[in-house]
Structure formats: structure tokens, C-alpha cells
Design goal:
CATH superfamily of the largest domain in chain A: MetI-like
Strand content of chain A: under 5%
CATH architecture of chain B: Orthogonal Bundle
Strand content of chain B: under 5%
Distance between the termini of chain B: 45 Å
Helix content of chain A: 55-70%
Radius of gyration of chain B: 24 Å
Structural class of chain A: mainly alpha
Order of helices and strands of chain B: HHHHHHHHHHHHHH
Radius of gyration of chain A: 28 Å
Structural class of chain B: mainly alpha
CATH class of the largest domain in chain A: Mainly Alpha
Shape of chain B: globular
CATH class of chain B: Mainly Alpha
CATH topology of chain B: MetI-like fold
Oligomer: heterodimer
Largest interface: A-B, 122 and 113 residues
Number of domains of chain B: 1
CATH architecture of the largest domain in chain A: Orthogonal Bundle
Largest sheet of chain B: none
Distance between the termini of chain A: 33 Å
């Protein structure tokens, strides 16, 4: 890495001390400047990132641990300073927490798998010689640039019970219908499906482009060889393309794990009473991130919210690790 | 019976057939319809919302609805748009400057510990920063920044992704010989940055700038926590405020949502090629 870097040449070819008089001081000054530039300038250039990360990234993360061991209530500063592991023992027995965890995983499962499969389909459609190629690619990014706040508002209307487009469309297919409409906010499964639909809509195009990029870097002769062996398009997709783009598949699984377990905006705004942050009248679709928000900023109990953040962190680590192993196995095994 | 082609082509060399175009068109429809329908409701009166089969033709009430959105007292919609522009522009400009500077240092300058520090930058990419959000709120409280735009701007001023992206780009595109010869002429590091690096990385700046602007504009959770209830919401917080209350008027909500989406649609229209490239390059390199 360093061998290709430019070897700097000093601005003055003769060492300063060989010269004399007024020239001398000017040159040492220039030399000093030069030395500073060479030695310390790189650190100055990278310092902003590290400073900012320490103040707004690393420190909060560590400080979070301290807060989680404290009684930190915005509405009651008189409580004893330390709480010990009280917040954590409360967490284990907290039904709301387990319910939110259950919802988070339910929505996560309903969104990740269809999302990545459909992304794979869209990517293989885009992986052809297309007319107006760029415009198709830009088109699939429409949901990606749309604010989740805006699209969730639209989907909230789609999934309303009485005049929603989702029920209308399902009615055309003979499901539900006007006499027996689905109440998307009345039970877990339907609420999860509605929210997962929003997540899928948002991320399919983005993931498809990631897959497309990987697909296009597969050497062409691999396909030529397999076609001579008589493999059709469908077989090629599963036997060649998917195993060859496996690293990117793993990457997208990790991305959607990290994103999915922190789901916040969709469940928040799917609720007509968003400010309460309860995720439905009985917490039908309250996610962990939403619960953290409610505990911290509605119940004003930051200590407990911090403990929940730690729990979420551990869960993300474990799930991302498991997913990594699983995806590695599944998409690479057939090679 | 068809004869099997002996010379097979890779998918990307195979011209798309009718089915491919048809399926792609259907995908496009799914991608675009919610946006289009947002516009339909934003331009209609209250009845359009409950129409079945759904209304699909835009109405004529756009200006009425927009006017209502802007005149709602405790939503501060006009101010929120200005705030979003300020926040996104400042964050984007700062990300471009500091990330390209750090990326240049990591890509082309020699200094002790550069490899370890770069590894650290990459590792920070994997930390979901939302996890420290409680403590971040406390930190901002100590600084006295909660409820101000500073609280939203400051944490985003340099990003690990930006540093990483810039480093990769500079390693591949700025020739060492060029830097070397500038050094021989006595150019300082900053001069090399300004005269050689910056002109060479313009495409990468466009990509990173667009991605950063979109992400900053769309951010919701942290702005909601720190700005909600103040007179300085961002546009995302303001749109969510439109939808709170006992009786939600959706033509207003969606008119507001539409206005807050238009800047990004324009960016996609103008810079779509760059955004696509940015996402695809990120995939191959990471």
C-alpha cells in the first residue's frame, strides 16, 4: 500500500545550514513548515472524522452503558444516582419488551426474505441488454429516494380498513371484500404484513442494484461453459449467478438485519395515533426501536431506555452473526 | 424444435425479450404508483380518498391543499423546508470536504498508523449508531443543543462511509506521479489537494454528495427526538406533525409529503446516473 505512494522531495535541495545570513532564517522557516506538512498534516486531515466519531459516536455508545446502570428519569431527578442492574432485571420481566422483540422479528422475517428474493429477480431482469438501460436502473430507485415518512403516509391509507386500496384489490381476487374487510391494524399478522410491505417496497430496488453490480462482474466464460452443458436461464441463475454473487448476498442480509432490527419510522407512522408510540392499541406492531423511543421520551425514563438499547445491540450482534453463517451456507453450498 | 445455440452469451449480453420488458414495466409500476397516488390525493378533495375503485386522476385542488399545509400554525411547514435545506446542505458540504480530505490522507500520504486507523474507520461502519441515541440526547443536552438544528447537523458532518468511499476512489484515480511532480515543485499537501486531488475526484464528489443529501433529508428518528415540539422541525418532522391529531386530513398530509419529496425526485431525475453508479460501485468494492 505504501510502496506506491509519492516519495516527497524537499522544496529546497540544499540543506539550510550550508547557506548564511538572512536567507538562513527564511529557509529554516520553510523547512519547518515542510516538516510539519509532511509529518503532521495527514493527522490534521483525518482528525475531524475521529473527533466527531468520538464525541457523537463512541462516547454516547459507552456512556449508554453508564446511563443504563443509573436512575435517569427526566421527570424525577431525586432518585438515587445508581440503579445497579435494576433496569436490566426489569427488562427481563417486561412484557412490553418481549412483545416488541416478537414484533420486530416477525416484521423482519416477513420483510427480509421476500425483499431479497424479489431484488434478485429484478436484478436478473436488469442484467440484460436493455434499451434505455440507465432509466430502468434509475426507475427502480424511486422508492429509495422517497422519504420513508412520505411513503408510510401513503401506505397507511392503502391499508385502511374501509376504503383502503389493499382491501379493494384483495376483494377483486375474492379475499375479504366489502362485506368482510381485513382490519390491518387489529391483529399482529396483518399489521406485520402491512409494515413489511412498506419495507419491501422501499428496499427492493436498492438491493437489486447491489446484486446487479455483482452479477456484471461475473466472468462471461462461466456462462458460456454452462450453456454448452445445456443449462437453461433458470438453472444458470441458481447454479451460477447466485453462488457467484454470494459475498454481496451476505452483505445485503447483514444490511437488512441491521436495518430491520432498528425499524422505527414505518411502525411509528402506521399508527393513526403516532405520538403515543405504542404501535397499535395493544402494541400489535410496536418494535424495539419504537419502544425505546416511548420509554425514553414519552415515559421519560432514559436509564431504562439505555438498558433496552444495550439489549438491542446484543440481539443485533447475535442475529447478524447467525445470518452470516446461515447465508454463507445456503448461497455457497451448491457450488 | 429449436436448435440449441452453440455460442452462448452471458445474461448481460443477451438482448432483453418482450417478457423482460413487460416484467420490468410491472416492477416500475409498483415502484412509482405510491408516489403517483400521493400526488393524486394531494391534488384532490376529501372525497377522493374514499373512492372505490380508487381515484387515479389528479384533481384540481393542489394549490388549495398546499395553501392549507403552509398556513397550519403549529406545523411550521415553510420553516421546516428551509430547515431541511439548511441541514442537508451544510451536512453535504461538510461531508464532501472532510471526507475527501481524510480519504486523500489515507490513500496517498504516508504517516504512522495509517493502516490501523483506516481499519478503525471501516469498523465504525458496522456500528449501528442508533444504539447510542439515548446517550447522544444527554450529550446534546449538556451542550445545550437539543431542539436546535446544531443537534441534527453536528453528528453528520463527517461519515465513515464517506471517508472509505473517497479513499477507494482516490487510490484508483489519482496518479502518484502527478502528486510527486507537484511535490518537487514545492507544493504543500493542501495545495496538492486543491490543485490535483479535487479536480480528479469530481465524479465521486457528485455521487457522495447526492447520497448524503438524500439520507440527511430523509432522516426521521433523531430529528423527531431532538426537534419535536420546537419551532424548528425538519420537513420530515413537520410532515409527521401533519398526521398527528384526532382527525387527520389526508389530502393535507399527502400534499405536505409530496412537497417534501419533490426535491429528492428532482435530484433523482438530474443525478440518477450518479446515484446508480454510487450504489453499484459500493457493492463491488465493499
Amino acid at each position: 500500500m505504501s510502496s506506491t505512494r509519492a516519495a516527497p522531495a524537499p522544496p529546497s535541495r540544499r540543506p539550510a545550514r550550508e547557506r548564511g545570513g538572512a536567507d538562513d532564517t527564511r529557509l529554516t522557516w520553510r523547512n519547518r513548515l515542510y516538516r510539519f506538512d509532511m509529518r503532521y498534516m495527514p493527522y490534521l486531515m483525518i482528525a475531524p472524522f475521529f473527533l466527531l466519531f468520538i464525541v457523537f459516536g463512541l462516547f454516547p455508545l459507552l456512556f449508554n452503558a453508564v446511563v443504563s446502570l443509573r436512575n435517569y428519569r427526566l421527570d424525577d431527578p431525586t432518585l438515587p444516582y445508581w440503579a445497579g442492574f435494576e433496569n436490566f432485571s426489569r427488562l427481563v420481566a417486561d412484557e412490553d419488551f418481549w412483545n416488541a422483540l416478537y414484533n420486530t422479528f416477525g416484521i423482519f422475517l416477513l420483510s427480509t426474505l421476500p425483499q431479497l428474493l424479489l431484488a434478485l429477480m429484478v436484478a436478473s431482469l436488469l442484467n440484460r441488454k436493455l434499451r434505455a438501460q440507465t432509466w430502468w436502473r434509475v426507475g427502480v430507485l424511486l422508492p429509495y429516494v422517497t422519504p420513508i415518512v412520505a411513503s408510510t403516509m401513503v401506505f397507511s391509507v392503502f391499508f385502511s380498513r374501509d376504503f383502503g386500496m389493499a382491501n379493494w384489490a384483495l376483494g377483486l381476487l375474492g379475499i375479504g371484500g366489502a362485506d368482510d374487510p381485513i382490519d390491518w391494524r387489529a391483529d399482529k399478522l396483518h399489521a406485520w404484513i402491512a409494515i413489511a410491505t412498506m419495507v419491501n417496497w422501499k428496499w427492493i430496488g436498492y438491493n437489486a442494484l447491489l446484486y446487479l453490480a455483482a452479477m456484471q462482474s461475473i466472468p462471461r466464460d462461466v456462462y458460456e461453459a454452462s450453456a454448452i452443458d445445456g443449462a437453461g436461464q433458470w438453472k444458470q441463475l441458481w447454479r451460477i449467478t447466485v453462488p457467484m454473487i454470494q459475498p454481496v448476498v451476505v452483505f445485503t442480509v447483514i444490511l437488512s438485519t441491521i436495518g430491520g432490527l432498528q425499524l422505527f419510522t414505518e411502525p411509528m407512522l402506521f399508527d393513526p395515533n403516532a405520538q403515543a408510540a405504542t404501535g397499535g392499541p395493544n402494541g400489535e406492531w410496536q418494535t424495539i426501536a419504537q419502544l425505546i423511543y416511548k420509554v425514553g421520551w414519552k415515559d421519560l425514563n432514559l436509564g431504562y431506555a439505555a438498558a433496552m438499547s444495550w439489549a438491542l445491540f446484543l440481539i443485533i450482534l447475535v442475529v447478524a452473526g447467525l445470518n452470516y453463517l446461515l447465508t454463507n451456507r445456503l448461497s455457497g453450498g451448491r457450488r | 424444435m429449436t436448435t440449441r445455440r452453440v455460442v452462448a452469451r452471458a445474461p448481460q449480453d443477451t438482448p432483453a425479450g418482450l417478457w423482460t420488458y413487460l416484467l420490468l414495466a410491472v416492477s416500475m409500476l409498483f415502484a412509482a404508483f405510491p408516489l403517483y397516488w400521493m400526488f393524486v390525493i394531494a391534488t384532490s378533495n376529501d372525497e377522493a380518498l374514499a373512492k372505490l375503485p380508487p381515484a387515479i386522476v389528479p384533481g384540481e385542488k393542489f394549490l388549495t391543499n398546499v395553501d392549507e399545509v403552509f398556513s397550519l400554525q403549529d406545523v411550521y411547514f415553510a420553516a421546516s423546508l428551509v430547515n431541511s435545506v439548511i441541514v442537508s446542505t451544510v451536512v453535504t458540504a461538510s461531508v464532501l470536504f472532510f471526507c475527501s480530505l481524510a480519504g486523500f490522507a489515507f490513500a496517498k500520504l504516508r504517516f504512522k498508523g495509517s493502516n490501523a486507523l483506516m481499519l478503525f474507520v471501516v469498523l465504525t461502519l458496522t456500528v449501528p449508531n442508533q444504539l447510542g441515541i439515548v446517550a447522544l440526547y444527554i450529550v446534546m443536552g449538556k451542550l445545550g443543543w437539543n431542539g436546535t438544528l446544531l443537534a441534527v447537523i453536528a453528528p453528520g458532518l463527517v461519515t465513515a462511509f464517506g471517508v472509505f468511499y473517497m479513499r477507494q476512489f482516490i487510490v484508483n484515480t489519482v496518479p502518484d506521479e502527478l502528486i510527486e511532480s507537484a511535490r518537487v515543485d514545492g507544493a504543500t499537501t493542501m495545495r496538492v489537494y486543491a490543485t490535483i486531488v479535487l479536480p480528479a475526484i469530481r465524479p465521486a464528489l457528485a455521487v457522495l454528495g447526492l447520497l448524503t443529501f438524500v439520507a440527511t433529508w430523509n432522516d426521521f428518528q433523531w430529528p423527531l427526538i431532538t426537534l419535536s415540539g420546537t419551532d424548528f422541525p425538519t420537513s420530515m418532522v413537520a410532515v409527521s406533525d401533519l398526521a398527528s391529531g384526532n382527525y387527520v386530513i389526508y389530502r393535507r398530509v399527502l400534499a405536505g409529503a409530496f412537497i417534501a419529496t419533490v426535491p429528492l425526485l428532482l435530484m433523482l431525475f438530474v443525478g440518477g446516473r450518479q446515484i446508480v453508479r454510487g450504489i453499484m460501485e459500493g457493492a463491488v468494492k465493499s
